Amino acid sequence: MALSKLDSLYMAVVADHSKNPHHHGVLQGADQVSLNNPTCGDVIHLSVAFDGDIISDIAFAGDGCTISTASSSMMTDLVKGKSSKQALELADIFSKMVQGETDDRQKELGDAAFLAGVSKFPQRIKCSTLAWNALKKVIENRKENNG
């Protein structure tokens, strides 16, 4: 069965983000959180630097499958320069999208919108949302620590 042009583009974008992840590494002095997906072994270490409420820099490290790594790369591209509130809204849109919900705001996800097809593979949803959940945890921890 031949792949459609859209499927081919999806595969190319996901493969590129997985093989050449953006913002890969660790930021010293930044807020940090580590999460894992015990069902497949994916692990992410997320570093987020803030300037006030704006995400001024972000990086991730760890070991993950193609979808987890690609999603992490896409997420870091998308939220850098955004406020905590904007980042949480994007995380919510992404989470709903990979669970099969459609929303006009999905266009705000940039490359991450290519992961909408994950909804057809429930066992991969946790892979795709790991980085986004780490981001939510960093922001939650920051709010708790700063009152």
UniProtKB/TrEMBL annotation:
**Residue ranges of the TM segments:** none
Tell me its family: Belongs to the NifU family.
- Report the superkingdom from the record: Bacteria
Q: Give every NIF system FeS cluster assembly NifU N-terminal domain span.
A: 10-127
Q: Name one GO molecular function term.
A: iron ion binding
Source organism (scientific name): Streptococcus ferus
Its recorded name reads Nitrogen fixation-like protein, NifU
InterPro entries per the record? NIF_FeS_clus_asmbl_NifU_N
Q: What processes in GO biological process is this protein linked to?
A: iron-sulfur cluster assembly
